[in-house]
Input
Amino acid sequence: MTNEALRILISSWFPNPEFETKSEPVEVAEGAASKAIINPNLLEFTEEGSQFLNVLVKPENLHEFMNKLKTNSDTCFDYLFCLTGVDWGAELGIVYHLESTQHRHNIVVKVKTEDRENPTFDSVCDIWRTAEFHEREVFDFFGITFNNHPNLKRLFLTPEWDGFPLRKDYVDEINMVIK
Amino acid sequence: MQESATLNNSFKSEEYFINMGPQHPATHGVLRLLLTIDGEIIKKVEPDLGYIHRSIEKMCERDSYQQIVHLTDRMDYLSSHINNEAVCLTVENALELEIPDRVKVIRTIIGELTRIASHCLWWGVMGMDVGALTTYFYGFRDREMINDIFEETCGARLTMNYNVPGGLMWDIHPNFIKRVKDFVAHFKTKIPEYNKLLTGNIIFQKRTKGVGVLSKEDAISFGVSGPVARGSGYSCDVRKYHPYSALDKVTFNEVLEADGDTFARYNVRIRELWESLSIIEQLIDNIPDGEHRVKTNAVIKLPKGEFYQKVETARGELGVYIISTGTKNPYRMKFRSPGFSNLSALNHMAVGGKIGDLVATMATLDLVIPDIDR
Amino acid sequence: MPLSITKSIQEMLLSMMSESAAYYAAMVVVALLYLGIFAIAGLFLVLLERRIAAWFQLRIGPNRVGFQGLLQTMADALKLVSKELTGTDRADKFLYNLAPYFVIISALMALGLIPFTKEFQAFDINIGIFFLIAISSIGVIGILLGGWASNNKFALIGAMRSGVQTISYELSVGLSLLTMILLTGSLQLSEIVEVQKGGWLIVQGHIPAIIAFMIYMIAGTAETNRAPFDMVEAESELGAGFHTEYSGMKFAYFFLAEFINMFLIAAIATTVFFGAWLSPFGITESIPWLGVFWFLAKTLLLVFLMMWFRWTFPRLRVDQLLTLEWKYLLPINLVNIVVMAFIVWQNLIIQI
Output
């Protein structure tokens, strides 16, 4: 599926109530039933100049959205090939790179939070098991915690390590040489 | 009644922990595994990483793009050329540079030679892990020939740094083509020798067949890639699906095995040697003339945006993810290393087996610890 | 009546001192002689193994110390002697220190029985084979003690594997030798050799003897804990197995014992299957001292066979090891004894 087709399909999952579309897909009705009304602000397509389709999701909607990307037969994103923690300065977030092994299309899902003290997202390791390690890595370097993660502890660094090294505001006068 | 109860109590088996690594012959470096064991049977494998973590991703944030290339061959040092290539491709794609065909072909040839060298080493170590020490020297004999070729062309044997953004650091050595051809001819007689020494051995087959099984669904879910995934029948060769450099000009088969056990993964790598040889043969006579490098600015500044490039290293899919803000350094650089994801499946594969099975399974994962730790 | 080496030394000493003093002095002299010979033999076996390994592995091997590296292992031994003896905390010190001696003593004790020539045999006991099997099982106690007392889990796993392995494979060693005893009718080694003057036992007993020999070599390799049965050390799994925590000379004892045990297994096979010091077709019967040459030639050939195993085969897994013994070797062995008994009963043996 091309990026454009994906974009149309995914947009259709989150119908904007202001512009109610006539052809509402069936699976949306099922998925949305539990979550009363879907907020149109939950989803946003962003332009990053990359070859992939970029989607920005609100944290509270993350797990449901990811689950849908995996289980929907049209998207079928069953391969999470990259999970990156990013410090955007004001916000902390995660970038998920997904690929479908059936359709061979890709998507990039992003999630951000402005809470730098205690950033928390839902874990996706029940959807893709590889996320378990990658989320531990992100926790280790960015201090982002994940709900429902089975074994969230430091992976690379020692448990008593102070701070989260890959954050932009991390200071280590001794070990870091900044030119 | 009472007596038999005490008797049962005194003979109660107990799980215990054993600390495999960071200094252990089978972990190939400084990987530490916390094993929970009941007798010889493994109940849980918990990797503890970070013993060789150098924070390459953080270092990248302060380095220029030319410098970053040099850091990457310290990750997966056995596929150093392919790592370099990944970064260079990302930068070139971001700059929309037109790379000469000569560079593409040479990169692909050296990339495949690197893959063969890596698989040779893996084969030697695989034999050693299951107890056949002799394989190591056979693997190294052939690997040395490749390293000699590399040394002649780019001056280094392991961490080559032959790629720069925009092309290659130097042109190939005049002897290069002849020596590669010699090597291909030599190595074609040696792969059957590998099979004679190890593959056909009944003990080896008993040790590996049905051991450490990873199903296709699990392989995808664990994000496993490379020969490990292809041993589970999961078609994932980046060279096929996202061809880079000159790989779209050659024909080769993606090696797939359905069983998903240790022997299948072993076979995938052995058969990949033939495919790599075939790729080299197709290209070695057709290296186009031209520049070995296109001019780039001394200070490379990537446009604002995000760039992702994946390549197939000897261990699997290496992803390079650059978030650029338009400065001379990346804002965030992430390496999706194949070993890290492959390692995450180890617990799933090893539980229920013996210690010997764990070692055999780990050998076919072909872990390079600096690649996992970065 | 041929004179054994003990007796000739005793008679030589008798001219110098009283009878009982000469008796004890002879024992000490013979013991020291054997100790010396086999310390050196052990070291050269190590060198041999290293050179053979190198040959298999496209290398040269040690060739710098002395002519063709002949003094290399001597230098290694000197280094080991001078090394610090380390140990672990909370190890059972007494057992930990005792273990290497169990292993080396059991290996050396068995050597006294080996008939190098008609004369060169220190101890010709009438239950020779039985004694050898009994003695060789003591070694495993040393390994178990060493692994258990050194307070290391890798060592413990190695020791437990060793216990399992040795107890299992001793059955096969014993039964395959028993098969041959049916032919000789005696456990005494000198008589076993005597019987073979009418053809080596492997020829006399033809098919069942060859089967017994193959089982013996497999089980013997397993009993010396060498590859492909080196579960006990299994360096890619257990680091160094039971001797992980040993250093210096204590480690060297374990190491030497392994080689002497290998020599022993080959020597017993030579004695029981290949006519010990007898020359092929009696070609050098008139020169008795050449027996040493024939004995060593045959033994070293078998030692080479065991080294060949080691540098070619991968290692078995621990459960496969037991499957091999209890499901294959043991039943084959039992059937083989019956076949051999039938052959002896019907007198179907091949005599030259």
Q: What stands out?
A: The interface with chain B takes residues 53, 56-59, 153-154, 157, 227-228, 230, 234-239, 311-320 of chain C (CB under 8 Å). The longest helix of chain C spans residues 19-56. Residues 1-75 of chain C form one domain.
